[in-house]
Amino acid sequence: MCIKLGMLTVSSTGSHVSHLFSASQNNIIKDMPSTLSNALKKFGANGHFNLYATCPSCSCNHKALPLPGSNLFDYPSQCTNEIVGKHGVSMCRSELLMHQCNSTVQPIKPYLVSSLPDYLTHCLSNETYLQQSINATDSALQSIRTGEEQLSVWDMFEADFIREFKGSDGKLFIDQGDKIHLAFSIHMDLFNPNSVTQCGTTQSFNVISCANLALDSSILYLPEYLFVAAIIPGPNESLAGKIDHFVCPVIEQFV
């Protein structure tokens, strides 16, 4: 139901949707928040988020600068992305903002990225998350120091790539000392709101999430342990060549 509603927000029939749902579903729709800030309050999401204005043309993201006051941000008015074409490099210059009826200016296509520090602060206060994160690296380092032969690989920290990976200081990643070193995988899940009966390229919503590879497989992908980093503005028929614009703000938090 939520996916279908998301599709209707960009549909010409978006203002006449009550006939598509049952009476109980229409009651739910009436209680749904109409703004991003109200939606976050509904979910109790009081953490920090990074706001971006996505270019409607090239999908380049421009980070908002917070201004004094509540929920006030400054965005560039035009896209400054440099695009390589047949005739050389040119600046996109597409408009990023639109004027609201209350005299405020908002991004035409907003992009919200969750805060990695907020996620880590929350999860590392969980004893299971903390201990499994520590034990994974410590066990891998211990097996190297004892010369234990690795006959099989059952988790990521038994793989040579992580066991042999070194940081900028030349030390093994798994030699964490008094710190906590975390390794994450990044995923992009595409949800087709038109069901899976359609073949070929279709519209979809895209969710970017990250999983702590130190966690046991039984809890690795549980919602409470996943870093749900962002939902790519959609729906889109294809993001070919544009994915990097949405992934970069997520990756930059890990650097």
Distance separating the two termini: 37 Å
Considering DSSP H and I runs of 4 or more, what fraction of the residues is helical? 25-40%
The rounded Rg comes to 22 Å
| Overall outline | globular
Question: Any low-confidence stretches, pLDDT <50, length ≥5?
Answer: 7-15
Largest sheet, spatial ordering of strands: 2-1-9
Order of helices and strands: HHHEEEEEEEEEHHHEEEH
Largest sheet: 3 strands, antiparallel
Chain-averaged pLDDT: 83
Salient structural properties:
255 residues, three-stranded antiparallel β-sheet, 25% helix, globular
Report on this model:
- The chain has 255 residues and is an alpha+beta fold.
- Among the domains are: 1-32, no CATH class; 115-255, no CATH class.
- Helix content is 25%, strand content 23%.
- The protein has seven helices and twelve strands.
- The chain has a three-stranded antiparallel β-sheet with strand order 2-1-9. A three-stranded antiparallel β-sheet has the order 10-11-12, sandwiched between helices.
- Strand 3 and strand 4 (73-74) form a beta hairpin.
- The longest helix is centred in the middle third of the chain and has 19 residues, at 127-145.
- The protein is globular.
- The two termini are 37 Å apart.
- Mean pLDDT is 83; it is low at 7-15.
